[in-house]
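Pasting as-is:
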Amino acid sequence: MSNVQYLTPKRSVGELNRAARRSSSAQAVAEIMFVKMAQEQQLDETTISEYPDLFTPWDENWRGKAGDIVQDEGQLYRSIHDVKDAGQNTKPSATPSMWTRIGNPLEEFPEWIQPIGAHDAYDQGAKVAHNGKRWVSSVASNVWEPGVYGWEEYQEPKAAQEAPQEAQDGPGEPEGE
């Protein structure tokens, strides 16, 4: 006789399948709620941008309402109007007057884009890159081009500029010894 032991799971295959379906359903519901909260502007752009794959890719058949978010050419865009027919459906990257681009959290200074109106104006403190320089908005609802009005050229903080010198001297060592 052999000493073969048969292992039986503590839960049946049916129970395991039900648990897997519940988990999958919970994930689907969480994704739907995330998209709904994003479209109702209950989430900030940084959070929204962390999960771009949850949003529908834009195509010529897309229909939706103001606030809906789509993917286009690697970016996320929020529709500023209802789209009920083909004549209203425009490519987000080609028509910024109909869409608001949602920022990329990995870009501290995204390229400046001319705002069309209040829906895409820059907030005070917003950071952009323009004409080879980095800028910070000094006014709220900023629609002006950097360098013209409402922007200050970004300066690195002094502590960041001095850090390389401290690293060379060594931490805590008095100079001149």
